[in-house]
Specification:
The complex is a heterodimer of chains A (116) and B (111). Helices cover 0% and strands 52% of the residues of chain A. Chain A is mostly beta strands. By secondary structure, chain B is mainly beta. Chain B is globular. The chains are: A mainly beta (116), B mainly beta (111). The interface between A and B is medium-sized, with 26 and 24 residues.
Chain lengths: 116, 111
């Protein structure tokens, strides 16, 4: 089974801190994604990457950056955390086989970030 | 982007079939219909997907209307572990991996 592992389940950070959220997948997937999930807003795509060192903005990239130095690892960076970035963050991956649009996404269990 | 409409919540009894509806009246010819579910305190989990024909797998069945403007996810025998939020999503092959989750349907299963 595909495993997508997020480094922390819960994080509490202070306003202005630099925050790193790490995600690792073990199935050699080309594509990796970061979403945030908020009540009433569903899941919203922040950034995605379709190859090492490649990144694309999603729907809400402001205040975030990403890094993909190795195929299995995709990091989300909050350069200066703010209280409105308190949320559940979900990492996902999928492969390009059969067409990437047709390939299921595999999600991690999420990191609940609280910014105080 | 084509959108989907689902009921906010549904209830089912354990061991009975569940039919979860989804309307997508603006679906385009290149949109695949995907279903995911999210159990409490977990990330979303892929359930099933299809384009035009009905599909079956070990988790569920997907029935797609002939005009593709609606679909139904069928759980053949609901268990307490099926209590989750179910998301119906359209994936456009021209949009790559821009997959948009809406509000979903919260399924409650009564023993």
């Amino acid at each position: 089974d595909v495993k997508v592992t997020q480094s922390s389940r819960y994080l509490v950070k202070r306003t202005g801190e630099k925050v790193f959220l790490e995600c690792v997948q073990d199935m050699d997937h080309e594509n990796m994604f970061w979403y945030r999930q908020d009540p009433g807003l569903g899941l919203r795509l922040i950034y995605f990457s379709y190859d090492v060192k490649m990144k694309e903005k999603g729907d809400i990239p402001e205040g975030y950056s990403v890094s993909r130095e190795k195929k299995e690892r995709f990091s989300l960076i909050l350069e200066s955390a703010s209280t409105n970035q308190t949320s559940m963050y979900l990492c996902a991956s999928n492969s390009d086989s059969g067409g990437s649009y047709n390939s299921p996404l595999h999600f991690g269990n999420g990191t609940r970030l609280t910014v105080t | 982007d084509a959108k989907t409409t689902q009921p906010n919540s549904m209830e089912s009894n354990e061991e009975e079939p569940v039919h979860l509806p989804c309307n997508h009246s603006t679906i385009s010819g290149t949109d695949y219909i995907h279903w995911y579910r999210q159990l409490p305190s977990q990330g979303p989990e892929y359930v099933i997907h299809g384009l035009t024909s009905n599909v079956n797998n070990r988790m569920a069945s997907l029935a797609i209307a002939e005009d593709r403007k609606s679909s139904t996810l069928i759980l053949h025998r609901a268990t307490l572990r099926d209590a989750a939020v179910y998301y119906c999503i359209l994936r456009d092959d021209n949009a790559g991996n821009m997959l948009t989750f809406g509000g979903g349907t919260r399924l409650m299963v009564k023993p």
